[in-house]
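Inputs:
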Amino acid sequence: MAEIGLLFDGFGVALSPFNLMLMFIGVLLGVIIGVLPGLGGANGVAILLPLTFTMPPTSAIIMLSCIYWGALFGGAITSILFNIPGEPWSVATTFDGYPLAQQGRAGTALTAAFTSSFIGAFVAVLLITFLAPVVAGFALQFGPPEFFSVYLLTFCAFVGMSRGQALKTVVSMMVGFGLATVGLDTVTGQLRLTFGFTDLLKGFDFLIAVIGLFGIGEILLTLEEGLFFKGTRAKLSPRVVLETWKELPRYWITSLRSSAVGCFMGIVPGGATPASFMSYGVAKRFSQDGDKFGTGKVEGVVAPETAAHAAGTSALLPMLTLGVPGSPTAAVLLGGLLIWGLQPGPLLFVEQTEFVWGLIASMYLGNIAGLIVVLTCVPLFAAILRIPFAIIAPVILVICAIGAFTVHTSVADVYLMLVFGVAGYVLRKLDYPLAPLVLALVLGDRAEDSFRQSMLMSQGTMSIFFSNALVGGITTLALVLLFWPTIAALLKRARGG
Amino acid sequence: MSTKTILRAAALSAAVALTGSPAMAWEPTKTVEFIVPAGTGGGADQMARLIQGLVQKHNLMKQSMVVINKGGGAGAEGFLEVKGAKGDPHKIIITLSNLFTTPLATGVPFNWKDLTPVRMMALDQFVLWVNAETPYKTAKEYVAAAKAAGSGKFKMGGTGSKQEDQIITVALEKQTGAKFTYIPFKGGGAVNTQLVGKHVDSTVNNPIEAVANWRAGKVRPLCVFDNERLIYKEKIAGDMAWSDIPTCKEAGVDMDYLMLRGIFMAGGVTADQVKYYSDLLEKVRGLPEWKEFMEKGAFNQTTMVGDQYKNWVAKEEQRHMQLMKEAGFLAASK
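Outputs:
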């Protein structure tokens, strides 16, 4: 197989001491960027991009992509420790990661998250190594109706599973959709719901909502409950890593399924954030312990982290082969490629073999480097929970404020974050789930765009969502997932009767 | 006007300015913010980051420069920020056509007159593209097919709504009588991929957004929306070079449209401060990396400063007003 030979050449390129050094620097920077909410991977890479103009392109992309891996790893840390997602794709990680930390199992949750991230990335890299040309063509099948069906699938996978408080879930989601419509509308080019406030022109940024709803909301709740962390009993021994590893093989089906969901969403390209939500929803549906998801199940950490990292990694494939970035960070890397004089597109794999295979080799090595860095730090991260709340809370508050400011370098966003914080506190007191709101805010905009683009294409007929096998298949799958409880009940009755 | 005469004019105006007080030239005293009124990864963002990288690499400025994306509300966020920073010499902004289209289409209160023109860096071209598997070899054939298919049957993909891509589409419709269904997407790269995937029938992508797919034989250029052909003679796809693409005028569609890639400062800054950035950017334009970038993206390398630039912008505003009025894109308040 030609790929193996090329890959080993790639390892030769990536393993030079200079590139190895860049790899570790990149991962470390990435973890820091991932930990700080607001300063996302895209911003981090964009800030550092000009520094790399003096390097050879291969070294530059190795360093920048390692920042990206680092950010993918780092996003989970604050999700688990403080219920504050450092990155959008870590929101789903909070659902079970934070309860685990509260039970004193922060080390377990972190190890599970990091290891799953690594596995997800590894599967995605294997896919890129051996199936790049085949898979790249697949993304071309995706027009507006196909994209809409994928978003629909994400919503349905996530919504169908919430039981009991269906109405509250719907309310929460509708608030999210409402917030997502604020700002400029892609299809008409008009401003919506800004009421003449210039600060609302850019709409409600998902990151600011998340920092407020989760971060500030959490601090308010903890204040009310008496100023202490429940996770202070966290084990600090490095042995926790090995113990967790013993437990993880049990979830191999979840890992495999989540990797598949992640790779699919990365290549399409739907992105890491929807991938993590979809994977969490699907895992909850099919797991034997599905009902206990949200109370601190390791499986509930494995699913979103595997998918997020698989999607984040495979998102580089459409970027390299089609010039279509699968994530905001990939978009910045794409800009970098052009500036370094490389033309992403179908010919990149043919003309720039050293660059492409150097990058792919660095994906293997960078993820291994990342895993080593974050796993050795697990006890250190868990130890943060031993710091008295009275000290850590102001620190978190300041970091959140800086994060909210960084997103658009706007002071108004800091106030907005506080408003979201209060809203988050109230919603949680009233038992409204926050996740549907966040999901609708992230995807509402994109789902709406692709729906209306489809309607323009079909001149208003819904049959476009069943116009070919691909879009029809995904739409049907989405509807099946949405009505699964009903369908399952019917099947049971049919079998019984 | 040819590039040469413009260059001469620029050199002349620079020389005139030099005779002022060369000893006390202004220089930035703190970090310069380079604002991009668009998202990360797009054309304006790439150019801004290239400029930043080159300034840093070649030590052209003592203070550092940071690129900040403020793309909310079709760029209104960035323009309003610079408008509000009157007299602040440490903010520069790169513009694209949204300098004109955003206030006209949305009624957000800003105008290029709130800013100080510094230097036009280049003009970006627009090319009519179709999927390479379609039989259309010329713009004429394509337009005839669109007409024959019936109103709204052919789909034109483009970036954003009521912005340059849709303005060109409407102008094309006016000129030819063909009627397209315009489908707005968020970015130029996505638009071109939709064309390769045959989800739309044609696009008016900038060269840099489509060149990779052209080289790979996935898309075909029909005509360029400029009065003259492109100057780049290096073969790109097969035996075709950028210079081999006919102008749309040659193909019977009398439409030209170029997008400004220019730098502005806030209002109320001194002539010294403007001159500093203008000279800095001229140094950037002279670098081999810049020239390579221009060639890659098949840019029109026209540059302008001072009154000439100002007049160009004023004329362009009128033209957008006219084009958008004809298309029915003006905000209610305009």
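Remarks. The first strand of chain A starts at residue 183 and ends at 184. The mean pLDDT of chain A is 87.
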